[in-house]
Structures are given as C-alpha cells and as structure tokens.
Amino acid sequence: MIVGEVVRVRYEITEELPSSAIFANYVARDRLHNSQVCLRFVKKPFSDEPEFVQMLCQVVEQAMKLDHPGIAKCYGIEEHDGKPFVICEFIRGSTLAERIRRLAPFSPSVACEIGIAIAEALSYASERGMIHGDLCADHVIATLEGRTAVIDFGLWRCYGASQTAGAVVLSRMAPYLAPEVIEGGMPSQSSDVYALGVILFELLTGNFPFRGQTPAAILAKHLSQPPPSVRAINPAIPPVFDAIVNKALAKNVLERYESPSQLLRDLRQLLDALRFGKKLTWPLEHEEGEEHVAPVKTYAEKKEEQKRAQVVFPNVPKASTKPESRPVSTRTTRLSEPDDVPFWLRATVFAAAGAFVMFVIGWIIFNLTQRPIVEAPSLLGMPISQAKEQAKRVNLDVAELGSEYNERYPQPGTVIYQYPAPKTPMREGGIIQVRLSLGSRMVEVPDLRGLTVTEAKTRLEKIGLELDPTTRQAPSRTISEGLIISTDPAPHERVERGTEITVTVSSGEKRAERTRRDVSELIENRFSLSFRVQESEEPVLVRVEMTDARGVEEVIFEEQRPGGSEIVLKDIPGYGKEATFRIYFNGFLDQTVRRRGEKTE
Hints:
Blueprint: E1 6-7, E2 11-16, E3 23-30, E4 35-42, H1 50-63, E5 74-80, E6 83-89, E7 94-95, H2 96-103, H3 108-127, E8 140-142, E9 148-150, H4 156-159, H5 165-173, H6 179-182, H7 189-205, H8 215-224, H9 230-233, H10 239-248, H11 260-276, H12 299-312, H13 330-336, H14 343-369, E10 373-375, H15 384-392, E11 397-404, E12 415-419, E13 425-427, E14 431-437, E15 442-444, H16 453-462, E16 466-467, E17 472-474, E18 484-488, E19 494-496, E20 500-506, H17 508-518, E21 524-532, E22 540-548, E23 551-560, E24 566-575, E25 578-585, E26 588-596
Parallel strand pairs: 11-14, 16-20, 17-20
Antiparallel strand pairs: 1-2, 2-3, 3-4, 4-6, 5-6, 7-8, 8-9, 10-13, 12-14, 15-19, 18-20, 21-24, 22-23, 22-25, 25-26
Helix pairs in contact: 3-7, 3-11, 7-10, 10-11
C-alpha cells in the first residue's frame, strides 16, 4: 500500500505506521465519516492462510463488542485486492514499550496509574468473556494526553490457526508468558494478571523480571526462578507496591491474583495512599462494603485454618470408638442396642448412593452410545455442492448462514466462512454452519452502446448496477435516435455494485443537421491527433472522445497490444474551429488535448 491510495472507495491512506509481526499498519481518512482510522493489513504468509483469516474474523467480531476508553475500538474486517485488513480506532501515540525504553523507570504513582488503566481494560473485557491472552508493552498505546489503550484483544487465538505465526511472535511473547501457559495451559484471567505484573516490573525498573539469550532460556526462567524484588533494583519503590508486583508474578496460580479486578482493587488503594501520604501495610485491608472477591486459599493456608479451629474449640470431646460395656447377654445386646444413626439419615445416604450408581451407569451408557468423533473438514473456497459432499464423507451436515460479497472468493456460491473451524473435533451427525459468497463487490460495466434506455436498465440490474435517471443527449451520425452512445463510467471499467451508470443517448442525425443550420458559426472541419499508449504487459483498452461544436462523439474504442505504441489519427471530421479530445486508458482518463481544425489554421 502507498500513501494516497484509496481502499474500498472509502479509505484514503494518509500515513504509514510502524508494522508488527502480523500487520502492516496505516492511517487512513474515512471519507464517509470524515474521520481518521487505522487500517491493519494482514501480512503474508498469514493473509494466504484461510484458517488464520477465518479465526481473525471471529476475533474481530467479538472485539467489536468491546466499548471502553482503555481499549482501542475495533470497527470490522474487510478485504482489498484479496488482502484482509482490520479497521480500528486510530490513536496518536507510542507503544508503552517505546516509552519504557526512553523513560523508565517511572515514579511509583505514574506506574500505578498506568497499571490501573490496563487492569480496568482487562477487567471490563473479562466480564464480557474475552481474555487478552497476548498482553505485553507492545500492545498498549500511550498518548501525550494521558490515555492508555490496550490493543489486539483475543489475537492469540489466531496464532494456533497458523503454522508459522507462533514461531514468529514467540520472541515477543516470551517475557510475558505465565508458567501455566508455558506448560500447555490456555490463557486465562490469571495469565493476563501475570503479564500485567511483568509490565509493572518494567515500569518500575526498566527491565524484564526474566531475561535470556533465547526465548527458550526466558521461558525456562519463568518456570524455575522466583521473580526478583523491584525494591532490590529500585529502593524508592514502596514495600506494598513490591508485594503487589510479587503477588501478580506468583508462579502458583493459587497464590496469584485470581482476576484483573482483584489486582485493580489493590492498585487503586495503593494510588490513593501515594496521593494522600497514607501508610499501608501488607497484606492490604479492605473496608467493609468494598467490592471484594475472596482469594483462593492455598493448601498451607487451609491447614493453618484447621489448626486455628482446633485451638478455638479445645474442649469439644471426641467421639468414643469403644462401646460402653453392659452386663447383658449377647442376644439381649443385639435386640436392645440403640441405633446411633437416625432412620432419615440412613435413608438419605442410601438414596444418594443409589443416585450415584445410576449416574455412573447412565454416564457409561451415554458414552458407549455416542457417535464417533471426527474432524471438521476445510470447506473454504468450495462451491456449496462440493462442500456438502465433502462434509457427507465424514457424516456431517452443512447449514447455510447467509451470503455476502467477498473479494477473496469472487465466484458466487463459494464457502467463505465455516463454523466450527477446520480440524475441530465433532460428533458424527453434527452440523457445520457456512456463509456463502455473493461474488465480488466489484463488477465490470457492460457495453451498452446501441441499446435503448429500458434495455440498458434491465441489463444493469442483473449485475447489481443502477441506471442514473438523468440521461444526457448528444447528436450522432452513426447511432440512431434514442439509442445509447456512451456511458460514464466507460464500458469494461470495474466499479462497486450499486454504482449509478450515466448514459448518453443519441438525438439523431436530423437534430444534428438542424443544429448546424441554426448555428451559422459552425463550419465543417478536420482535426488530427497523435498520442502514445502507456507501456503495459497486458492489452490496453483505448477510448478517445471528441467534443466539438455539435457535442460529444466517440472517435475510437479499441484494444491495443501490450508493449506501448503510438497512435496517429488524421482527418477526424468535426465542426467548429477547435475540438477537445479526452484519452482514456482502461477506463481511466489519461490526458485532455485541445486541437485547432485544419481550416482554422
């Protein structure tokens, strides 16, 4: 892409931004809303991987629902010349990674404010079921006005749909990966907290908590080494802030903040203390009525609670394990011994045991009677009939969700989206939902010359174009009155569906003669014109229009061979002292030339 290029007839690229491993980024002006947006074009080879693009569409669709000042807004995903791109909010600023490289270490209050902004965004998204999964300083934008915005929510899901993306982004992700994710676990709220803990460590020290020569060395330290203390590196950090960072970086998930909202609560309390000079002690105490999620207790904490319970209730006698001796016969004992278990409790136990047995039996029967598991085949790019046959081979069905225009798959009736994604495990008899292509949004303008207006309207409507109700008229010696002379845009030019085509209709030779008689200044003349066709590897469609004293008339409309050539036109009949020639190549105006007639010179 180049500055000045117009994308999808709507977005005019005005500036190129630094690119990332996945996206090439540009600033563009949205002509429809007269606003700036960020266009993020998917780089190769990811743009050529249908699974990656399909997963990206799902991620963007979910991210569009996030509306928070701490999250860069996502407006949608489209295609241009077969290249998928994401339309996002443009935020003028720099990444937090750049600010850390230039300005770190930050003061405790500034670092705390940035951490709060990120935690608020993570908390908002997690409440709506969306995990970031790839949080790092490169995915946080900071502006000069003080705004902090997180980008690329959920993008981690696309890495697994690509054969190469994981290896490309590993070096950037390695310093922020939580131990449980390194060991194969899925990203979660807790792993986002760990990544935010790394960012806080960077803000306060200017360094990562774990560094290494290779990503593998860094990952090994995440698994084996305890996180260093920020106070050991920067003694100006308050002890409570050190404890908060240490808890966010805990290797054991049970000892870490369970969610971003828990970390957010402690950061807010810390910032309040820093602003007003309050003293805090660790662990932080929270006021009654304050929103608080009880932390998950570790095994050691649970054992300690049991010990405290025994101290609180020391006089509770233990149940005797020996029956009280009685001077009665064995037979009498068996008949008269009291039942220590009430009847209702015994019945409850038997009922629960019976229900459990029935559950186990039902579970076994359910799994034995379930249909086999198969992998969903890839149906992308297939005609719907072929897609149904492909799904039928593995005993799956196909249901159509609808249709939409698509540039990647211009053939109507082609599968452009499927759910579940390819290779997803499914039970036989399951349904794959697909969306079909209506064809390309762009269509070629047909040649309407010689048709009536009614015929032209019918032909345009069949291919999704509209006829401009306002028609032009011009005299013609070669085309009968009432028939179309030319169109705007020109024939064979590609335009977006729904475009209005303006036609010029012949007013006939008689009107042309009448016009010449009525205007005494009109004199018959001859004109000459020469021009060079631009060089091209493909044939070039050349069209020349002449505007003289009687109106507009097409001089030539023909296809020239590749390589470029010079065209010389002599003795072009016309009227008036001079004429204007417009030269079009492949439907685009190349130049406008004015020529005086031979009888005028």
